[in-house]
Amino acid sequence: MKGFFITGTDTEIGKTTITAGLTHALAQRGLRVAPVKSLAAGCDAEGHNDDVERLFAAQTLGLTREEICPLLLREPCAPHVAARLDGVAIERDALLAAIRRTAAKAELAVVEGVGGFRVPLIDGWDTADLAADLQLPVVLVVGLRLGCINHALLTAEAVRARGLRLAGWVANAVDPSMPHVTDNLDALQAGLATPCWGHVPRLPDPSAAAVAAHLNSSLALEAL
């Protein structure tokens, strides 16, 4: 299994946006890329989840929504709570097998985690364990806002403590009014000590193609 595990400094900081953009950017290099949303919590009355729809639109392999997201829960809350409310069990082996089946349909898989790096899934297994089980290089999405340096450095420390390689990071503008952006980017680069794959500004239409224009796919290929 080749590819990347996409994690973030928090929830709602653009992991799916970057996953879709990276999928598009690598596909533009001629690679067969499978985006995977390991699990998602929150869907509308028709059973649609916005993140899954975004990844579905970004891929070119003809994957089904169920292949892209093997576990979709209804309530928009922590996965272990959403699973309890839905009356379903998150099964470690089954989830890993589903992710690997989708990855096997491509040359590369871009697997997105849930929330930040350490989100509980079941007793004794969280999203950091999921990343460790998959053994993919990690890409950290840093949501640019006040406090992001601390969140990013703590996450990088946690990633490396699991024996995983932090292959790169992406700065994603979540607070358009954030002051001193350049100073923050410099501090992040020094502290994370791994290449920055791009700085994605606030976009009027954050489509996969628009995001990909701000990502350095050459760095991604070098990291494989």
UniProtKB/TrEMBL annotation:
Organism: Roseateles agri
UniProt-recorded name of the protein: ATP-dependent dethiobiotin synthetase BioD
Subunit structure of this chain's protein: Homodimer.
Gene designation per UniProt: bioD
Cofactor: Mg(2+)
InterPro entries xrefs: DTB_synth_BioD (IPR004472), P-loop_NTPase (IPR027417)
Catalytic activity field: (7R,8S)-7,8-diammoniononanoate + CO2 + ATP = (4R,5S)-dethiobiotin + ADP + phosphate + 3 H(+)
SUPFAM superfamilies (UniProt xref): P-loop containing nucleoside triphosphate hydrolases
Domain of life (superkingdom): Bacteria
Primary enzyme class: ligase
Metabolic or biological pathway: Cofactor biosynthesis; biotin biosynthesis; biotin from 7,8-diaminononanoate: step 1/2
Keywords assigned by UniProt, alphabetized: ATP-binding, Biotin biosynthesis, Cytoplasm, Ligase, Magnesium, Metal-binding, Nucleotide-binding
